[in-house]
Amino acid sequence: MAPPGEQMPQATEWKRKVEAYRETLTDAQPDILVMIGSDHFHQIFLDNYPQFLIGKAASYDATFYNEEREFGLPTYTLTGDEGMSRFLHQSLLAQDFDLAFSNELKVDHSIVCPIITLRPQNDLPIVPIYTNIFAPPLSSPRRFFELGRAIRKAIGDYPSDKRIAAIGTGHLSLELGGPRQFMETGPDPEFDRKAIDWLRAGDIEAILASVTHESMEASGNATHGFLNFILMLGVAGSTEADYIDNLDLFHTMEAYFTWFPKEIG
Amino acid sequence: MSKYYVNKFLFTVDRDPRLLSRYTEEPRSFVSVWEQSIGSRLIGNEAEASTAHAFTEEERRALIEHDFVTLFEMGAHFFLNLTLFIGIYDEPYREKLGPLAFQRAFASKLGHWRGKAYPSIMT
């Protein structure tokens, strides 16, 4: 972490918000973490790009030289859960979601940053799932939502008394490598406000009526990371969020949501 | 035109500190070396060559000149085009002009694209 003189002005508030968000995961007392993120041309490239991919390995290294260079990320080793990976993969195939798989996956910041922020003790096994939000053409917003529903069903069907949390990372409006990058706000604050309201209410119909690949592109060339939020709403089940927070960082709006499982009657 | 091959250049160089250093110091000779002996390697298989792609003259020139504006306009992937040149220019800009100076200069050089549909990155 940067020394206090070099920290961004929001550092103290960011830390407070992340710690409060972390408590929602701690309170859920999880045993296994299903981590949904997206590779950013670290292991996966255009010679062979899957729309969706599941990691099936006993451990996962992180991260990459160019992420250490650019973000100062530390290296990590995350423990996997091959049994859970295998079950999820087969369940998703049976639900007609044909995920690619990897038995040797080095994960990037999309998986490691939520571990650093939400589970810094890194003491739980993970199952990583990667989505393509990055190399067009992309799957439809509805497909992301439906994959979320299928992941939720697979988790529910897992024959175990383990407690499983799903953690997804994505973003609201974002521009990278374009004229609207690194402004004082994200490239489309109006989209950000609407997106937070949709997720707060769990309003998938409003999202699907408004959000297209073209509309995301217009909100910022990297806004397609919002597709992972849509997927997570699928995992949650288009219901009101139990915990909502956000923070306006200098170039993007961060938003944090938690849905706790409703007890099955 | 090969957007894929331009992206392959950016991808292979960004991920390897030795290649990045050579591309920073001697871009003209490095691009030539890359075309002769690196670009043709099938990713993930050092022993196999691929003859599927080559640069156009304009792509070669843009890479030699670190011309990220032209690369953006050709539809190079925004993430690779940004991270590679951050890797080269972030530090010198920061030392002279402060944090994020390069990122903001990058945005400013693309200012004429504000409000327009960007060139497609689809490959």
Outline of the structure:
The complex is a heterodimer of chains A (265) and B (123). Chain A is an alpha/beta fold and 265 residues long. Chain A has helices at residues 11-27, 65-71, 82-94, 109-118, 141-157, 189-201, 204-210, 213-218, 226-236; strands at 32-37, 52-55, 59-62, 76-79, 100-102, 126-131, 164-168, 243-248, 253-258.
Arithmetic mean pLDDT of chain B = 96
Mean pLDDT of chain A: 95
Q: Strand portion of chain A, in percent? A: 15-25%
Supply the CATH class of chain A.
Answer: Alpha Beta
Q: How do the helices and strands follow one another from N- to C-terminus of chain A? A: HEEEHEHEHEHEHHHHEE
Structural class of chain B: mainly alpha
What is the ordering of alpha helices and beta strands of chain B? HHHEEHHHH
Largest two-chain interface: A-B, 28 and 41 residues
Any low-confidence stretches of chain A, pLDDT <50, length ≥5? none
Q: How many strand elements of chain B? A: 2
CATH superfamily of chain A: LigB-like
**Number of DSSP helices of chain A?**
9
The biggest sheet of chain B amounts to:
2 strands, antiparallel
Q: What is the domain tally of chain A?
A: 1
What is the number of independent domains of chain B?
A: 1
